[in-house]
Amino acid sequence: MLLALAPKTLSPFSFLPNPKPNPKNQIPKFATLNQNPVPNSEPIDRKCEYRTERGLKFDTGETFFRHESATGRDLGVLAATLYKKSRGKLRVLDALCGCGIRSLRYLVEAEADFVLANDGNVESRDVITENLRSSGEEEEERWKVTLMDANRIMTECYLNRDFYDLIDIDSFGSDSSFLRSAINALRMDGLLYVTSTDGFSSGGRRPQQTLAAYGAYVRPMPYSNELGLRMLIGGVVRVASVMGYRVTPLFSYYSYHGPVFRVMLRVIRGKLPDSRHYGFISYCRDCGNSHEFSWDELGRISCPCSDSKVSMSLVVSGPLWTGPLHDAAYITDMLTLAKEWGWAGSDTGTDLDKLLNTMVAESDPRLPFGFINLDEVASRAKVNSPALKAVVSALQKEGYAVSRSHIESNALKTNCPMSECIRIAQELQQ
Ligand SMILES: C[S@@+](CC[C@H](N)C(=O)[O-])C[C@H]1O[C@@H](n2cnc3c(N)ncnc32)[C@H](O)[C@@H]1O
Known about the structure:
The chain folds into two domains: 28-274, Vaccinia Virus protein VP39 (Rossmann fold, 3-Layer(aba) Sandwich); 352-430, N2,N2-dimethylguanosine tRNA methyltransferase, C-terminal domain (Phenylalanyl-tRNA Synthetase, Chain B, domain 1, 2-Layer Sandwich), CATH 3.30.56. 33% of the residues lie in helices and 20% in strands. It contains 14 helices and 15 strands. Helix 2 crosses helix 10, helix 5 (150-159) runs parallel beside helix 6 and helix 10 (328-340) packs antiparallel against helix 11 (352-362). The N and C termini lie far apart (87 Å). It has helices at residues 2-5, 70-87, 101-108, 125-133, 150-159, 179-185, 199-202, 207-214, 224-242, 328-340, 352-362, 374-381, 388-397, 418-429, and strands at 50-53, 56-59, 91-94, 114-118, 143-146, 164-169, 186-196, 245-255, 260-269, 278-284, 290-293, 314-321, 372-373, 402-404, 411-414. It binds S-adenosylmethionine. S-adenosylmethionine (SAM) binds next to helix 3. S-adenosylmethionine binds next to helix 3.
């Protein structure tokens, strides 16, 4: 009776604002129930646009496609291949597959046993199907195309106990709304490859937005793009932890084309022990040094340079992933595989060899989070920007750990404090 009297428009979520449509993120049309599997081939009557990536020919038609994402696809395929080699099996769910190029590459290059290629855009059906058929592999046996909302397909897989070893979430903007259903559909100890193209907020320019999307208040710091990766991982840590899982990154990759933030994570059963690696990062604008703070130090956040007084110069962001960005052993194996396949070099626009070598160097356990940009050192030292090579060798000579950063070309990761970097820059100038 009461229900009948309730106004029809009243929903439990009516207090929430209507999401603003973002034309870039809009999907033309969603499939309705039971429209899968995709019917067999019909004559092609559409715009075709053929391309080649790592020797594989495919059509992008009118789907969303970015050539610049090729390195992200290379990295995904390398990691997936190693997974298959070590486990002997590989089932992939490419939840937002665009034209299906990732699915095709997982199938052909990583030799996935099965690939489920899904996209919400029903108009991309023929393109995805044609691309996967070009693999010469049997439809239904080795691959299948679905055209659903990503959350729906992943939830259906979970409910049908159809679990996947690798789930690829290549979304527009933030990945956050897909995480829960992705983790549900993932096999235990599986891999989750997530993407954020949320450049503005990842860079610390929209802390309210990062709080809403990733549960982290992220403010501008000199190494904001690394924070973007840490925010992305931290977001998965939070969702996974609620579900009884923890994550460890295999690699974290930032590309200024977009910009795009990508992380490949291993998802393991069990909670994060004592919230290690999930905390707060501070940067002091006075001294230029950064520190990590755990949750129980929250009330005592200050920079040693300001005599333990809370300073207006201290910028704090978090909670974020504060642990390693990469698994050095995994990346070393990816590098070996890339060389074996002749992928080293810059066939897809990025020098893969150089990128993976830098990632290995960044994994030195002596190196803290963040990086120091040499222009910042130069401006604090009141000298011209020193040559990167010269600073690297000076730091090494003095016994500091140092590596280049794959995120910024004129920056270094080092355990050397800013005051010493300033001294070195001044000495190099003389
Ligand atoms: C960045 S593109 C994917 C590109 C593709 N992975 C590649 O490597 O070329 C994102 C895709 O997600 C699809 N999409 C957006 N929202 C979706 C949703 N909620 N469910 C399923 N697909 C969605 C879009 O149609 C688009 O093809």
